Amino acid sequence: MISIALRNLFGEKTRLLISIGGVAFSVMLILIILSLYRGWQIKSTEYIREVDTDIWVSQDGASDISSSASIIYPDIAEEIENIDGIAVVHKFLGRPNQLSIKDRDVNAYIVGFDIKDPITGPKNIIEGTDKIHKGEIVVDKVLAKNNKLVIGDFIEIFDKTFKVAGIAEGANMFVFQFSFVTMEDAKEIFNTGELFTFYLLKAEPGKVDQVIDSVNGIKGIEALSREKFVEKNKRFIDEVFLPIISVLVIISILVGTAVIGLTIYTATVEKSREFGVVKALGASNMQVYRIVFEQSLVSGGIGYVIGVGLTFVLLWLIPIFAPAFVTVVLVKDVAMVFVISILMSVVASYTPVRRIVKIDPALVFKS
Q1: Which of 180, 186, 183, 147 has the alpha carbon at shortest distance from 165?
Q2: pLDDT tens-digit readout, 17-32
Q3: Whole-structure pTM value
């Protein structure tokens, strides 16, 4: 039965290539979409995860760093600082803002930090320094690459000019990248005085939950553990991109199933007489099912392997031409796409195999 399936399949090389190509394209598209989504999910919260704090405190309802504006007033800040169980309090000042780079407006998220206590500063300097002074700035490597920035170049923010002193990585949120200036410069840019965006709290050992409960008792603010704050920011990515990702994956599956189905259907129908002979010689419907399913599964398996290979080639090329797109391939996604490939093959076999099992063997010998 297997040899019959392979002979049918490899007898028409062009048709086989079309079938394999359809599966490979679907697998590649699904894996690239999923890897971009994982990249958005994981990398977009990388900076937040690396900030060394136990608790993020924000204005109530604004605990999302990328899409909401939080302001904590001095009187509330004073209440926070007087809560028992807090070991250290850090102030975070950051907002989305436009930079002017070589006469182009670029969206970025500007963070002010204290170089003597750089908890909110850049986490991984790859060029230059993070020991910046007033009038200097550290930019993310994606922003630098997209705008051909090098150490010593100048950026304008409103009417202030900043010299690029460092380039960092791990501060790419895709919609925009983080840029870092001194806290003094950030206050002047945002004109906030002693208003801050978030308060970052280090709790005494074993008192994280106690401090969170106490802070949440203050009207107008919300306290979240670092893990919950990361999840809340990750949820923004899910809400914005997950519906789009789901639609594209479904389309890819339908395309792959349709291509396999059409090629297997054509190959099977053209061999109707041969299948009739096989049935006349005593083959059961189950054996006929095996022949057709074998054809489809071989096409799907070869297409899957080629599709995975093409995916890794493209994922190597994408950052070269589009550095903002960071991809992450998970083993579970590769395994899931393998299962999807098998299911596409099985579903694609359904229509042709139903037609074949209905063939009356006696009709083969008429003419």
Answers
A1: 180
A2: 777 787 788 888 888 8
A3: 0.74
